[in-house]
C-alpha cells in the first residue's frame, strides 16, 4: 500500500492559550535564552583564551557549553517567536529539521556528560596514568565518537517518525516537534515505532545514567584514600557534574523511557531540561569551580579592562 502524506505544515498548541500568560512567558523565556547564550559563550571564551584551562576536563566542558547553546537553540527561538504569534505553525520539513537537531544535540549532551565522568574517573582513580589515558588524541577521539553517536541516534529517530504517513491531523499539542507528539498524528499503527523510540532514546538515557552513577560510586569510594584537600577539590568538581547530570537525565528518562503517552506535566518537564538546565549549567560550573572563576577574573582584568586602559 502506497504511503500518503497530505501534510505541508503543522500547528503548535504551545505552552498556553491565554494571551497574558503568553506575554509573560515571552519575557521570561527571552531572558532565559539570553542567559543561556551569554553564560555558555563566556565559558567557551574563557576556556579558549586561558591556557591554564587547556586540559581534558575543560575541553569537554567547552563541548558541553557548545551543546547547551545549540540544544536550546533547536527549540527556544521558535518557541519565543510563537508566544507573540497568532498562528503557531511550522512547515513539514521545518518539523523534520527541528526534531533532527533537537535529538542530535540532546544525545550529544548525554554522551559528552558520560565522557566527562570518565575523565573524572581517570583523574581521581588513575592519577599517575591520567595524562597517558586522557591524551590529546584520546580526547579528540572521545569527542568525535560522541558526536558520531549523536548523529546516528538522531538520524534513526527522525527516520522512524517521518517514514509514517500523515493524512489530515496537523495540530501538535506541544511547543516544538518531538517524537511522541508527532507520532500521535500519524494515520498508521505506531506501536512498533513507539517501542523502537523507547529502545533508541529511553535506553540510551537510562544506560548512560547508570554508567554515570557507577563511575561516581567508584570515585567516591576511591576518595577515602586521598588527603582532605584532594577530597574537597574532587567533591567540588564531581558535585557540579553530578548536579548537571541529575538535572538533565532524570527528565530525559521520565519522557522517553515510557510508551507514547502524554501527561499534563510533560510540557513543564520539557521546559526544564531544554531551557532551565542549559541556563543553570554555566552557573553550576562557575560558582563551584575556583579555576573557572579565577580564569574569568583574570580575563576580565587583563583583556577587557586592559583594552579600556590602552584606549
TrEMBL record:
Entry superkingdom: Eukaryota
Family stated for the protein in its record: Belongs to the G-protein coupled receptor 1 family.
Species of provenance: Phascolarctos cinereus (Koala)
Entry protein name: Olfactory receptor
GO molecular function: G protein-coupled receptor activity; olfactory receptor activity
Presence of the UniProt keyword RNA-binding in the record: no
Signal peptide: none
Residue stretches spanning the membrane: 23-45, 57-76, 96-118, 130-150, 202-223, 235-257, 269-287
Coiled coil: none
Subcellular location per the Swiss-Prot or TrEMBL entry: Cell membrane; Membrane
Bilayer topology annotation: Multi-pass membrane protein
Stretches assigned to the G-protein coupled receptors family 1 profile domain: 39-285
Annotated InterPro entries: GPCR_Rhodpsn, GPCR_Rhodpsn_7TM, Olfact_rcpt, Olfactory_Receptors
Keyword field: Cell membrane, G-protein coupled receptor, Membrane, Olfaction, Receptor, Sensory transduction, Transducer, Transmembrane, Transmembrane helix
GO cellular component: plasma membrane
Alphabetized Pfam families for the sequence: 7tm_4
Amino acid at each position: 500500500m502506497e504511503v500518503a502524506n497530505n501534510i505541508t505544515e503543522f500547528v503548535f498548541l504551545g505552552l498556553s492559550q491565554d494571551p497574558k500568560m503568553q506575554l509573560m512567558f515571552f519575557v521570561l523565556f527571552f531572558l532565559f535564552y539570553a542567559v543561556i547564550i551569554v553564560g555558555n559563550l563566556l565559558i567557551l571564551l574563557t576556556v579558549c583564551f586561558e591556557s591554564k584551562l587547556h586540559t581534558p576536563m575543560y575541553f569537554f566542558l567547552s563541548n558541553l557549553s557548545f551543546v547547551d547553546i545549540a540544544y536550546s537553540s533547536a527549540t527556544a527561538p521558535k518557541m519565543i517567536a510563537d508566544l507573540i504569534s497568532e498562528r503557531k505553525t511550522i512547515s513539514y520539513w521545518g518539523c523534520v529539521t527541528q526534531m533532527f537537531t533537537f535529538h542530535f544535540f540532546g544525545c550529544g549532551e548525554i554522551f559528552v556528560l558520560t565522557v566527562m565522568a570518565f575523565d573524572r574517573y581517570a583523574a581521581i582513580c588513575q592519577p599517575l596514568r591520567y595524562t597517558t589515558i586522557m591524551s590529546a588524541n584520546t580526547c579528540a577521539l572521545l569527542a568525535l565518537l560522541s558526536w558520531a553517536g549523536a548523529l546516528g541516534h538522531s538520524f534513526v529517530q527522525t527516520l522512524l517518525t517521518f517514514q509514517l504517513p500523515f493524512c489530515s491531523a496537523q495540530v501538535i499539542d506541544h511547543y516544538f516537534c518531538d517524537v511522541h507528539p508527532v507520532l500521535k498524528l500519524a494515520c498508521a499503527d505506531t506501536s512498533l515505532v513507539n517501542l523502537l523510540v523507547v529502545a533508541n532514546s529511553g535506553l540510551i538515557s537510562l544506560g548512560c545514567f547508570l554508567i554515570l552513577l557507577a563511575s561516581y560510586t567508584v570515585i567516591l569510594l576511591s576518595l577515602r584514600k586521598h588527603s582532605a584537600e584532594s577530597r574537597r577539590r574532587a567533591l567540588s568538581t564531581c558535585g557540579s557534574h553530578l548536579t548537571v547530570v541529575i538535572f538533565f537525565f532524570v527528565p530525559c528518562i521520565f519522557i522517553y523511557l515510557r510508551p507514547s503517552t502524554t501527561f499534563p506535566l510533560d510540557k513543564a518537564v520539557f521546559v526544564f531540561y531544554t531551557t532551565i538546565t542549559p541556563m543553570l549549567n554555566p552557573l553550576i560550573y562557575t560558582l563551584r569551580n575556583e579555576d573557572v572563576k579565577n580564569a574569568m577574573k583574570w580575563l576580565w582584568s587583563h583583556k577587557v579592562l586592559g583594552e579600556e586602559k590602552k584606549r
